[in-house]
Design goal:
Structural class: alpha+beta
Oligomer: single chain
Radius of gyration: 20 Å
CATH superfamily of the largest domain: ATP12 ATPase
Shape: globular
Length: about 230
């Protein structure tokens, strides 16, 4: 950790957006780019994370700062590579792989996940094959092409949010559903953790699982917050 070295956190408007400054100097990303937000609301939320730091700077408590940095340093540099990485999740989407037992879990997955699979087919034109077990099965190429075209049209902040949600949940369908408002962040979390929740009801939850759950919550909620704060971004 780095000791807090600044007194005043502020937001300044620039030609390309809004930058966050510490004692008048722009904050830099890990790649040494200016930490710049696409909307004033987002910039102020990022600035608030810096303002909340006390004696020591704790990056784990600054999820929006991390997301904006990732967007600037990685996503904006090569969005096509991000899209390709996301499509790997689409080919083996969590929602399309179902348990064959016990019956309670089978029924729970069907009730929770199938409505989203049906929604993707109807609203997005993306028909996905649902399989039982863990053996991989190819998805229809036309559906994957359609899904790729959808996510390739997203701008940098939305693509960044999508990448975060998909990596956390293992489901591209869930990520897209969150981006378009089909599900909330809380619903996304519940759907992604359905199997783990079922097992926890039987065996309980250990400390490691609690930590993973806390990390998942922070990532998905930060992505949803990024989307909300960029709702007016072009």
């Amino acid at each position: 950790m780095i000791k807090r070295f600044y007194s005043v956190v502020a937001v300044a408007e620039s030609e390309a957006g809004f930058i966050i400054t510490l004692d008048g100097k722009p904050v830099r990303t890990p790649a040494r780019n200016a930490l710049q937000a696409w909307s004033r609301a987002l910039a102020e939320a990022v600035a608030a994370e810096w303002e909340c730091q006390e004696q020591w700077i704790r990056p784990a408590t600054m999820p929006l700062t991390q997301l904006v940095s990732t967007a600037i340093d990685r996503v904006s540099v090569d969005p096509a590579a991000i899209v390709e990485a996301l499509m790997a999740y689409g080919a083996s989407d969590l929602l399309c792989y179902r348990a064959d037992m016990p019956e309670d879990l089978v029924l729970r997955q069907e009730a929770a996940w199938q409505p989203l699979v049906d929604w993707a087919a109807g609203a997005l034109g993306v028909e996905m094959v649902v399989v039982t077990g863990v053996m991989p099965r190819p998805q229809p190429p036309a559906s994957l092409d359609r899904l790729k075209n959808i996510i390739a049209a997203y701008d940098v902040p939305r693509l960044t949010a999508l990448q975060t949600v998909v990596a956390a949940t293992g489901s591209l369908l869930l990520g897209v559903a969150l981006l378009v408002g089909r599900v909330t962040a809380e619903e996304t979390l519940a759907l992604a953790q359905l199997d783990e929740t079922f097992q926890a009801e039987i065996w309980g939850v250990d400390d490691e699982a609690k930590q993973r759950w806390a990390g998942l919550q922070q990532e998905v909620k930060a992505a949803a917050q990024l989307l909300a704060l960029c709702s007016s971004c072009s």
